[in-house]
Amino acid sequence: MTRPFFVYGTLRPGAYNHDRFLLGRTVREEPARLPGGLLYEGPGYPYAVPGEGEIAGELLTAAPGAYGELLSVLDALEEYFGPGHPLNLYERAEREVVRVADGVSVLAWVYFAAPGTPLGEPVAGGDWFRRGTAPRSPGAPRRP
């Protein structure tokens, strides 16, 4: 079954990986929030983990015919090799996210930090773009 994707870091519109990996592959991008999640600094990109908080991001819907390609591209970028794989940097999970415009909950794919991933400092307010440093640096590592 196809699902939209919730992105919260370098894949958000305006960030350095958005056009590189998403341009032409989405039909809709809308602000959304992930309840039950916390955001942490990573090495140039953020990590989400389940927790008592909320994360700001975007809900992306694949363009017609682009879902399989988009899923493969994002899994490769996120270094997701399958559920519980020991080489995973992220785990892909289905979670309810809330569209900001109308408050409707939508089941979407979310990439969470894999167990054992070293986390940096918490991102206050759960918004990567408002953390006080530039999220759009073109020379930063390619991560979500």
Structure description:
Helix content is 11%, strand content 38%. The chain has 144 residues and is mainly beta. It has one domain: Gamma-glutamyl cyclotransferase-like (Hypothetical upf0131 protein ytfp, Roll). It has a five-stranded mixed β-barrel with strand order 1-3-2-4-5. A hairpin with a 4-residue loop joins β2 and β3 (46-62). The longest helix has 11 residues, at 67-77. It is globular. The two termini are 23 Å apart.
The CATH superfamily name is Gamma-glutamyl cyclotransferase-like
Number of strands: 5
Strand order of the largest sheet: 1-3-2-4-5
Order of helices and strands: EHEEHEE
- Mean pLDDT across every amino acid position: 90
What is the first-to-last residue Cα distance? Answer: 23 Å
Number of helices: 2
| Global outline | globular
Question: How does CATH name the architecture?
Answer: Roll
Helix share bin: 10-25%
Given the helix and strand composition, which structural class is it?
Answer: mainly beta
**What fraction of residues sit in β-strands?**
35-45%
| Domain tally | 1
Oligomerization category of the chains in this entry: single chain
CATH class: Alpha Beta
Low-confidence stretches: 134-144
What is the rounded Rg?
A: 14 Å
InterPro entries: AIG2-like_dom, GGCT-like, GGCT-like_sf
EC number: 2.3.2.-
GO molecular function: acyltransferase activity
Protein name: Gamma-glutamylcyclotransferase family protein
